[in-house]
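>> Question from a student workshop board

For tomorrow's exercise we were told to take the sequence and the ligand below, predict the bound structure, and bring the output to class. My setup keeps failing. Could a helper post the expected result so I can at least see what it should look like? The ligand is nicotinamide-adenine-dinucleotide.
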Amino acid sequence: MKLAEKSVNAILAPLVRGLGLNASGEALAVVPGPAGKTEGALQADIGPAVRDGLIDEKDAAAILRDAAAGAGAKLPSSVHVKADGEPLGTYWMDRTLDAARARMKRGDPSPLALEDGRGTRENAAGALCPPGASSRSRADVVKNRVALVTGGAQGFGEEIVRGLAASGALVFIADLNIKGAEQLAEKINGALGKTSALALALDVSREESAEEAAAAIAETAGGLDILISNAGVLKAGSVLEQDLPSFTFATGVNYTGYFIMAKHGGRLMRRQNRNAPLWKTDIIQINSKSGLEGSNKNGAYAGGKFGGLGLTASFALELIEYNIKVNAVCPGNFFDGPLWSDSEKGLFVQYLKAGKVKGAKTAADVKTFYEEKVPMKRGCSGQDVMRAIYYIIEQEYETGQAVPVTGGQVMLH
Ligand SMILES: NC(=O)c1ccc[n+]([C@@H]2O[C@H](COP(=O)([O-])OP(=O)(O)OC[C@H]3O[C@@H](n4cnc5c(N)ncnc54)[C@H](O)[C@@H]3O)[C@@H](O)[C@H]2O)c1
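>> Workshop helper replied:
Here is what the output should look like for this input. Compare the format with yours to find the bug.
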């Protein structure tokens, strides 16, 4: 039987992770390893699910589920998968990536101990938030969840990566700027003393790149719980003057890039959902206040962001079948981030040079002018955006929404 090794792990690891999520109601990491030692592992033969050298993921999921049913409430920490007797691989499961890797190294198939009150399917639905409980701590909301943040190397993306990692998530920092992503991952892992962040090269405007990134995540951690579609670019320009390449460049990242990421991240979440139907996952687009109101001489940006909200609502209707919630956050301006505050290329310096703000003598004057437009008299921060992200993830009864975080600059209408 000939099967491409790459696709085997990208398909089987999320199906195995689904078994673990379903049994425990807790986020886990699954690491694919060589077929090697199989004693004590849950055994499954997916031969009947292979046709013309391709794995039918629905059928393979059912075979794995049947094999796991015999394991009762015990959570199998290693699953050995064959196809018509030929070994395909062994998948090692534990609460964190480091623990799963260590388990694989030790060849330790002992069942995972479940925390009190866990180990039933109902937990996967929402036992993490008992009825009547007040808001959970941030760590409880994202602990051990696998997250992907596009454009995570700087700006809002970096703030989100830092926030999620500090709260116990495993975060893939996916960016065009792979050097920046690697440096950030190194800093975070050094500070936290464990593998909390991993860099991934990604161009959200290219479908092959997104597909490869989703496969890499499945092969590294076994699945995906949170997709933050944050990568964005701005090319301002008058509708009467802007050249078409500038317009399509902005739209290609901000609008089409969101579709591409939701497609490939969503497919990975659906795969995991096949064996964990009650486990909820989140796709969150970092939109903008420019997705809620027009932006003068900035139509490419605002148009793409308005469109992003249409995609959010439409994807939400479709993907809830797989328990994937889809929402957007619409932040106000991040004046302290590099887009605005970079001392050479930042918008404050650019606007000062262009004389856009009458009477402004310094970049600080330009900043004050823009802060005055906000009822709360300051720009949006990474913390402000993180609060909205935690709300969306914790709120299990909402999808297809846009949460404004604008300091009152854009109000309901
Ligand atoms: N900065 C603001 O004031 C502001 C306000 C509201 C909303 N937003 C939104 O927040 C998001 C982040 O904005 P920011 O200002 O922090 O951006 P930024 O320019 O500081 O960082 C963007 C990151 O995305 C990466 N990137 C760019 N194109 C990419 C691509 N094709 N594939 C993968 N990565 C790519 C860049 O390398 C960079 O690391 C964007 O969606 C933006 O529209 C920003």
